[in-house]
Amino acid sequence: MKFRINQQELIDAINIASKAVSKSTNIQIHELIYFECKENSLYLMAFDGEISIKTSVDAIVDEEGEMAVKASLISNIVRKLPNDLVTISNKEGKISIRCSSSNFNLIAFDYFEKNDIEIPETTPIEIANDVLKRSISQTEFATTLDETKLALTGILFELKEGSLNMVALDGYRVALKKVKLDYPTDYEDSEYIIPKRSLIEWSRIITEDTKTKLYKNDNDLIFVSENTTMQCKVIDKNFIDYRNIINDISETTIILDKRELINSLDRAQVLADPGRANLIKIEVADSSMVIKSNSEIGDVKEVIDVEQKGENLDIAFNARYMQEGVKACDSTKIKLNFKSSLNPCLIYPENSSYENEDFTYLVLPVRLAN
After folding, report:
1. Cys staple from 201: which of 19, 89, 183, 291, with CB 3.0 to 4.6 Å?
2. CB within 8 A of 230, min separation 6: which ones?
3. Are residue 258 and residue 348 in the same domain, yes or no?
């Protein structure tokens, strides 16, 4: 095989394929990128046992063929080449890489396993990439790292009543993103738990001004956008019924500036004790929110003016859990609904609720000793 391609275009394609390369493995084929050139295109493929990625880029193909190279090696070489035309050939077990005055010679792998992706001949779900990227960022942080709760390490994709509901929860909070979506009728009332890593990698690959097509294939989902395809395994477990967790009955509602709350939580965490679940105490009274935290080295108090409806309230939270939910709201002002000091807090953008809003965040309080 022999092909020619611009250095920057090649490293961009390698970076995409490398997202499906294992960083720590004893399985050699999971460390490789598979190259195939035919007609006027170069195809790069990689897989690590969990996800597979295939991407293509225009190239000058002098001789069609294929080869496999260790991903970290080819990436380091191409990245250090000048931004000029790169010529790569594979002949008699030797790979030649030439660019300007640089010339690398590598030993080709004798064995590799091609892991091509076949796209089903079915009608896909289509979603705008800017919506998908934002939806992933509004939910992925609420997944758990506890592998004993495998279902909760992923994000639920639920197709119901003309919406795609993306849900993540870890036992302490719930992040729910609703996206109005037209999809084929045979997808109605279906759900898939997608590994967090797969969605994060896809979010890093796609550009905002295009769309993703989503196909179901046995136990896998296939994502397609422009010239890149990703196949990932779904998590075959039952997800928690999040609807039974979210209850929007409230006794106290406050509306306040989102940025002001984020900054106050930032400062409160400086003296919060990590050994006590990053605890902050909140007092709502007389149209003010008072945030307090303390540790062995000192204490801090923040006061924020709020619009208050309902009863006064004392409650405590893990500061990071609350802050991450606040950051995920798409609005300059947010609304917090409380039922009591022992019940979850629901966080929304202003002028919204669980019934009519596309983003809902629930966070459990921390119980305080009397």
Report:
1. 19
2. 20, 51, 52, 53, 54, 198, 201, 202, 205, 222, 223, 224
3. yes
Distance of alpha carbon 14 from the chain centroid: 20
Phi, psi of 15 (to 5 degrees): -60, -40
Distance in angstroms (rounded) separating the CA atoms of residues 317 and 85: 56
User: CA-CA distance, 360 to 370, in Å (whole number)?
Assistant: 31
pLDDT of residue 234: 95
Domain that holds residue 51: 2-107
Global pTM exceeds 0.90 = yes
In whole angstroms, what is the distance from residue 131 CA to residue 179 CA?
8
Output the six-digit token pair for 82.
């000048």
**Going edge to edge, which strands form the sheet with 298-305?**
298-305, 288-295, 279-285, 313-318
Domain-embedded: residue 62: yes
Name which residue leads in pLDDT, 134 or 355: 134
- pLDDT per residue over 248-299, tens digit each? 889 999 999 999 999 999 999 988 777 777 899 999 999 999 999 988 889 9
As a whole number of angstroms, the distance between CA 179 and CA 352 comes to 15
Residues 336 and 253 sit within 8 Å (Cβ to Cβ): yes
Residue 162 is given by DSSP the state T
**At 195, which CATH number?**
3.10.150.10
In a domain, 120, yes or no: no
Given a cut of 80, whether residue 162 has pLDDT beyond it is yes
**Do 102 and 204 belong to one domain?**
no
Kindly state whether residues 182 and 262 are assigned to the same domain: no
